[in-house]
Design a protein that fits this description.
heterodimer; A: 278 residues; mainly alpha; MetI-like fold; 2 domains; 11 helices; 76% helix; 1% strand; globular; B: 287 residues; two-stranded antiparallel sheet; 13 helices
Chain lengths: 278, 287
């Protein structure tokens, strides 16, 4: 018996449709579970008070501060490095063996799993450089982890800046660096910001690399040499050691909500950036 | 006298070169320090006794990680069995069927799924998947199949976005040619588009494998972390990443070196996977 190809066509279309929405469904279910289970345990006091009894009671204030410190400081270090690399790759060289090496480095860094960053940060920053479990060791490890994201997004953003802008700038007798500083970078800002937002999202959600470099002290980190824990680490410890499911859900809400907001903002900026030159 | 602007231009250029070199420097440092800690034990105990050793008791001088290597590959293959068909279907739907508005909804949703931290996946796995497996299939629920299910979902964004890029880059003329021959849309996709996007699709699977084999936090929460080769899909297991994460915090001396040896093996596997995947992507571009 020969089945009409048109029926197969329709069947396939339906099957693919179902699978695509199934994938979106997973996202919605994950977010829904976290929110429904967690919101009853999240309130103003939970966010702004200190944890007591290992996190069984009280709030998550120090871990929120720790997360913000980690994310902002690593962005502060990674952005100039990453943006500089991107400018060099797009404006100062042609494709050569040298740029191939650099691209190889960036690609390889992007492919290394976070537990290996944890191993490296632990042996290099914590032990060899004697930083101990500290905010500084966490920040330096995180900086290396997010560098590839910043480089890639900045490079794409700079490449998307139309040539005419540069030509006009040169015709006004601006030097190369002046052109980059005053014309190219301002035009590429939305794309660069997207990379920064995505990197912040990554820093907020990271656990494996942070727990072995920044440690898991429950106190508020007041200096770079203090240990601290991020929300993701706090959540992991609460859940894994079965300390308190309610507090774990509460932490998860704050964690997931902040990551979703950061990423949505990143895509919003990116869409604006795409609309700009097309 | 040299012009100040010219001097500044040169200065800027060399600073940027230094910045660009930093990525290579970091990569080099990561390699050197993991190798420096991980290799001595291979020389002391013997490569065979570590890679093919069955017993991991680092405080008693046994550093065998063979069960973990096998377990890492098993969960990765399991994740691929779940993630690859689903991910490829999504990518095909997105590139060939979805309208502009559906795309505007689906693509960000998939990117957001990629942003969910792995601890959250692990937590939900423990709360929902593990009990489900325990009550319907038996065993403790902390098992190969639970881990594969969760990892399968976690690698979806990687597979979808890279396959999608490969499918979209198939030239329009191929589609038109096939349609002109009287082929239905599905025939065109199956016989023309997928074969021409093959290397990119394979690359997406391999990068998905890389993501699954390197995943840590979700795995240690769901896998059960038992130190033997699983004999059924309901058995608990411990992966290479899990071994490092579970013991690094308190390990000292040779025990800690053993964890770095585990890291060396993991690094080699990841490097091979990334190299193969990049080769696939580059070949597509070259074509």
């Amino acid at each position: 018996m020969r089945i009409n190809p048109r029926y197969i066509n329709r069947l396939v279309r339906m099957g693919l449709n179902v699978q695509a929405y199934f994938t979106v469904g997973i996202l919605i279910i994950i977010v829904a579970i976290i929110f429904f289970k967690g919101f009853p345990h999240t309130n103003f006091a939970f966010i702004f008070s200190f944890p007591e009894d290992m996190g069984r009671e009280g709030g998550i204030f120090p871990s929120i501060v720790g997360t913000i410190q980690l994310a902002l400081l690593s962005i502060l270090l990674a952005t100039p490095l990453g943006l500089g690399t991107a400018i060099f790759l797009t404006e100062y060289t042609k494709e050569s063996l040298f740029t191939k090496f650099i691209r190889f480095g960036v690609e390889s860094l992007a492919g290394i799993p976070s537990i290996l960053y944890g191993l490296f940060g632990f042996i290099f920053f914590v032990i060899k450089l004697k930083m101990g479990w500290s905010l500084l060791a966490g920040v330096l490890t995180m900086t290396i982890m997010i560098l590839p994201t910043i480089i890639r997004t900045s490079e794409e953003a700079i490449r998307a800046v139309p040539r005419q802008l540069r030509i006009v700038s040169y015709s006004l007798s601006a030097s190369k660096w002046e052109t980059i500083k005053k014309v190219v970078i301002p035009a590429a800002i939305p794309g660069i910001l997207t990379g920064i937002m995505l990197s912040i999202g990554r820093a907020v959600g990271e656990t494996a690399a942070i727990i072995f470099t920044m440690g898991s002290s429950l106190r508020l980190p007041l200096s770079l040499m203090d240990s601290g824990r991020t929300m993701a680490v706090h959540f992991y410890i609460l859940a894994r050691e079965g300390i308190s499911m309610e507090k774990a859900y509460g932490t998860a809400v704050v964690l997931v909500l902040s990551i979703l907001l950061i990423n949505i903002l990143a895509y919003y900026i990116m869409n604006k950036a795409i609309a700009r030159y097309s | 006298m040299i012009d100040r602007t010219v001097l500044k231009e040169h200065l800027v250029k060399w600073v940027l070169v230094a910045f660009a070199l930093s990525s290579l420097l970091f990569l080099f440092l990561i390699f050197i320090f993991i190798l420096a800690e991980g290799l001595p034990l291979f020389l002391k105990v013997g490569v065979n006794k570590i890679i093919f050793g069955m017993k991991w008791a680092p405080t008693k001088g046994y550093f065998g990680i063979f069960p973990m290597i096998i377990s890492s590959f098993l969960v990765t293959i399991g994740a691929l069995i779940i993630g690859a068909p689903l991910g490829l279907s999504c990518a095909i739907y997105l590139s060939e069927y979805a309208g502009k508005r559906t795309k505007m909804l689906l693509k960000p949703a998939i990117e957001l799924l990629a942003g969910i931290p792995s601890v959250v996946f692990g937590f939900l796995g423990v709360i929902y998947i593990v009990p489900l497996v325990r009550s319907y299939l038996g065993g403790s629920g902390f098992s190969l199949i639970s881990t594969s299910l969760v990892l399968g979902v976690m690698i979806l964004p990687t597979i979808i976005s890279i396959s999608f890029d490969a499918l979209v880059s198939v030239p329009r003329t191929y589609r038109e040619g096939s349609a002109a021959m009287g082929a239905t849309k599905w025939q065109t996709i199956f016989k023309v588009i997928i074969p021409s996007a093959k290397s990119g699709i394979l690359a997406s699977f391999i990068l998905g494998m890389g993501r699954a084999i390197g995943e840590t936090m979700a795995v240690i929460m769901i896998a059960g972390n038992a130190l033997k080769i699983p004999t059924s899909i309901l058995d608990p297991l411990r992966t290479l990443t899990g071994n490092i994460a579970l013991e690094l915090a308190y390990a000292t001396g040779d025990h800690r070196l053993g964890l770095f040896s585990t890291g060396v093996v993991l690094m080699v596997i990841i490097m091979i996977l990334n190299y193969v995947a990049n080769f696939g992507i580059k070949r597509k571009i070259a074509k």
